[in-house]
């Protein structure tokens, strides 16, 4: 089964100089410092990445792996979903990033592979807008309902509202923007920490959406799409339970998420997922110290093979 929402091929970046990025620490409350040397931390992250790739391959997901040798000072390169996205019909977007180190993650060889192996009609590059201090950090800033054509977006410095409107016009999505805060009242920096959309369900912490009317709207729109809403707690979000991505494997749909995230879910929540998808837990505790989890590590390819 191939789902429009859930790609069967992905891009991942193998880190060689992974670290918790000081440039992004101010507004990413999920970041922590690894309790080991830089070399040991980087090696552990690389090992976690490689094992995750093996598990995805075993599930029948095609994984295109690119090595980041660390020469460009890109500590967050293991999270490629922020700088580009792909869309049915052969469309690719390249995004402007908030901090300089993340801008260096963009690489032509990834786009060239997409053009070589998939049907790419156009590449719309928004990255030049960084010169105007504008950012829209891909499918971190936006969680896309590819079926209902909705771009759910938390307002933040990583998601400029003018750029969001421009993207939605170009790619035919309806923007639904809202404010969100964590349990300590801090602004949420990326939408994909609190929302993950599968084919038949959506994982979301509705309590994080500040405005009650907007909260009700988001729930209603998710339910209108025929999905069961799995309402997550603040504690589950802190364990990265919202940072998951559904993929199409050999034996149907799989939900890739971290082992920590799966352990945080209740049996009832897991049962809703298992009604249509198989949970695929990936152990990435070192990578999670950088403030991102499995969803951030995976850039889905929503393109047709050549």
From TrEMBL:
Taxonomic superkingdom = Bacteria
Pfam families, per the entry? DDAH_eukar
From the UniProt annotation, give the residues forming the signal peptide: none
InterPro entries, per this entry? Answer: Amdntrnsf_FN0238
* Matches recorded under NCBIfam families: citrull_CtlX
**By what name is this protein known?**
Amidinotransferase
Native species: Ruegeria conchae
């Amino acid at each position: 089964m191939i789902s429009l929402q859930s790609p069967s091929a992905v891009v991942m970046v193998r880190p060689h100089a992974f670290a918790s990025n000081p440039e992004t620490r101010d507004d990413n409350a999920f970041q922590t410092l690894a309790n080991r040397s830089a070399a040991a931390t980087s090696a552990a992250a690389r090992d976690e990445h490689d094992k995750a790739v093996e598990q995805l391959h075993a599930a029948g997901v095609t994984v295109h792996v690119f090595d980041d040798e660390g020469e460009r000072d890109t500590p967050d390169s293991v999270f490629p979903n922020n700088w580009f996205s792909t869309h049915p019909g052969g469309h690719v977007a390249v995004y402007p990033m908030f901090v300089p180190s993340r801008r260096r993650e963009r690489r032509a060889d990834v786009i060239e592979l997409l053009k070589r192996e998939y049907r790419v009609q156009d590449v719309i590059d928004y990255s030049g807008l960084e010169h105007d201090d504008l950012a829209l950090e891909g499918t971190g800033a936006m969680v896309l309902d590819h079926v209902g054509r909705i771009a759910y977006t938390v307002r933040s410095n990583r998601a400029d509202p003018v750029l969001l409107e421009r993207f939605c016009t170009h790619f035919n999505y309806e923007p639904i923007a809202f404010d969100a805060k964590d349990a300590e009242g801090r602004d949420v920096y990326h939408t994909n920490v609190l929302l993950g959309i599968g084919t038949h369900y959506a994982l979301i912490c509705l309590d994080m959406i500040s405005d009650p009317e907007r909260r009700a709207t988001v729930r209603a729109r998710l339910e209108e799409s025929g999905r069961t809403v799995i309402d997550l707690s603040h504690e589950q979000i802190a364990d990265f339970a919202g940072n998951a991505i559904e993929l199409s494997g050999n034996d149907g749909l799989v939900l890739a998420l971290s082992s920590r995230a799966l352990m945080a879910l209740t049996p009832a929540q897991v049962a809703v997922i298992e009604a249509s998808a198989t949970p695929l837990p990936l152990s990435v505790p070192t990578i999670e110290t950088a403030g991102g989890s499995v969803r951030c590590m995976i850039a889905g390819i929503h393109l047709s093979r050549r």
